[in-house]
Design brief:
seven-stranded antiparallel β-sheet, 3 helices, Alpha-D-Glucose-1,6-Bisphosphate, Chain A, domain 4, alpha+beta, single chain
């Protein structure tokens, strides 16, 4: 059985700024982790977090889909688990943009809940990156 995380985040910003925060390596470093991400299908990358005694801090990825500025998906692999992360951006009007996150491929609900917590924490920093 496979589990999927689905979350929505709305921000007062333009779709271009939201896209940039999801795809620019320097901006990603400001809200997720140091990385070598490029929004190019087939590009392999890493997010490098602070390691701990339980985890090496590395998330390996590969970009699957780039449809600027509407949709981005990539593989997200760490700790023996691999998921697909898909972002869908939608202009809501009145200067607001919705970011829909779907992360599929969890083998257990514990990982799903950990991811829900992690994305919630990271999106606290996302808004600050939008202001840059």
């Amino acid at each position: 059985m496979s589990f999927t995380l689905s979350m929505d985040f709305s921000f007062a910003t333009s779709i271009e700024k939201a896209w940039s925060a999801l795809t620019d390596s320097g901006k990603l470093a400001g809200w997720i982790a140091v990385n070598d991400f490029k929004p190019v299908a087939g590009h392999r990358f890493q997010f490098r977090h602070q390691p701990s005694e339980w985890w090496d801090g590395i998330v390996d990825g590969e970009v699957l889909t780039v449809d600027e500025p509407n949709r981005l998906s990539y593989i997200w692999a760490s700790g023996g688990e691999q998921q697909t992360v898909t972002w869908t951006l939608q202009v809501l009007g009145d200067g607001k943009v919705n970011l829909h996150l779907e992360q599929s491929g969890f083998s257990h609900t514990q990982g799903l809940e950990g991811a829900r917590y992690g994305w919630g924490e990271w999106f606290g920093q996302f808004e600050k990156v939008l202001e840059q």
